[in-house]
Design a protein that fits this description.
Helix content: 10-25%
Distance between the termini: 37 Å
CATH topology of the largest domain: Signal recognition particle alu RNA binding heterodimer, srp9/1
Number of strands: 10
Number of helices: 4
Number of domains: 2
Low-confidence stretches: none
Largest sheet: 6 strands, mixed
Mean pLDDT: 95
Radius of gyration: 17 Å
Order of helices and strands: EHEEEEHHEEEEEH
CATH class of the largest domain: Alpha Beta
Shape: elongated
CATH architecture of the largest domain: 2-Layer Sandwich
Strand content: 25-35%
Structural class: alpha+beta
């Protein structure tokens, strides 16, 4: 029945400022009106709605005000350089000190985080093939540590 995600929404304080930010992420405008803008994430498949209003004051929680964009493993490896090139700063996830992308072996994915102008949490994320003998690892690993581990274990 369910084929994928059609839409997600985020609150913003200034639609004009947010539109410029999301354009830097290479998202294409689908449509816009006075206080709402929709960007294609995958054209014809999924989009992101930005809604200007006081709801941007809603405190951040992982279940609110968060979007993860799917990218390739190779793109994620170069994500900090890409973010720097479009003048967006990465942010550490949780109690991590580093903004560098990391692998979650037990979840089979990798991520890097950054925020939009209103503090909405954005994530670039990819799936990672994890050998069965490494799926028990709950530690968040750097790409360098992950690749060393996988190359030594396989």
């Amino acid at each position: 029945m369910i084929k994928g995600l059609y839409e997600a929404h985020l609150p913003v304080s200034n639609l004009e400022k947010s539109v410029e930010f999301y354009k830097k992420l290479d998202l294409t405008m689908a449509w816009r009106d006075e206080d709402t803008a929709f960007f294609w994430i995958e054209e014809g498949k999924s989009w992101l709605g930005l809604w200007e209003g006081n709801e941007f004051h809603t405190p951040y929680h992982p279940s609110l005000r968060h979007i993860a964009f799917h990218v390739s493993y190779e793109d994620l490896k170069g994500s900090i350089e890409w973010l720097d090139s479009i003048k967006i700063e990465g942010v550490p996830f949780g109690d991590r000190k580093s903004i560098e992308p990391f692998i979650r072996p037990n979840q089979g994915n990798a991520s890097v985080y950054f925020n939009d102008p209103d503090g909405n949490s954005l994530e670039l994320m990819c799936y990672v093939e994890v050998p069965n003998n490494l799926k028990h690892i709950t530690e968040k690993l750097s790409f360098e540590d992950w690749e060393k581990l996988v190359n030594n274990k396989l």
